[in-house]
Amino acid sequence: MVEFVRALTRVDATALVAGSMIGSGVFIVSADIARQVGSPGMLMLVWLIAGVTTVIGALTYSELASLFPRAGGQYVYLREGVSPLFGYLYGWTLFSVIQTGTIAAVAVAFARFTAVFIPALTPDVFLGWTAHLPSGDIQIGLSPQRLLAILSVVALTWINVRGVRTAAVIQTSLTGIKIASLGALVVLGLTLGRNHLALSTNFGPGFWGHASFLDLLPSIGAAMIGALF
Pseudo-torsion of CA 224, 28, 149, 173, nearest 10°? Predict the structure, then answer.
């Protein structure tokens, strides 16, 4: 029987999951969540709820994986648990919308943050046109930032096509760098970047805001979209 090559070690598999979970979303959506809930306490609460929800989801998937130890992930679980139609629809939705949209969002975030260090990577469109939509005008075309985003997707696709082991080495290395960078950021924030004025402002009397929890429930629900991204 032909099977997939089992080339991932436990460390590689852990790095794959950690690298997928700890991405650019935490840097992109925090500001939007803060605008929606309006206080540092509620911002941290949203992230806490998202973390607990994620752990529950991980435990659920571990149970499903033990019940259906076959390649396919959610496609298999929906096919076996609901119907083949739902598995089929999810598979095509993942290919055409979910995964492609996520890859595009991460690539754009990578290009935007790289532009902070390289000012020449501007968002100005030099080849394209402006689409006039009811929600506003959108510039469609190529810009230095978009070119970098496209090239990053092409480069990572090429690495994955070369083989599982090559992709695993790159993934594990990048995840290690990512976790080390976040750890260093936390340590620097608690030591060299410690600011008493910021601490008193964020953790002072307005820590939980002035609105009641029930009034903020709709905002917390909307903010969860970003936190679970």
Answer: -90
* DSSP assignments along 101-124, one per residue: HHHHHHHHHHHHHHHHH-TT----
Q: Which residues contact 190 (CB under 8 A, 6 or more apart)?
A: none
Question: For residue 92, how many other CB atoms are within 10 A of its CB?
Answer: 11
Q: Which residues pair with 132 in a beta bridge?
A: 137
- Token digits for 65? 């994986």
pLDDT in tens, 66-120: 888 888 888 999 998 888 999 999 999 998 998 898 889 889 888 998 999 998 9
Q: Is 64 exposed, middle or buried (0-12, 13-18, 19+ CB in 10 A)?
A: middle
The answer to whether the beta carbons of residues 165 and 7 sit under 8 Å apart is yes
Quickly tell me which residue has 């903020």 as its tokens.
216
- Encode pLDDT of 176-209 as tens digits: 988 898 899 889 888 887 888 877 877 878 788 8
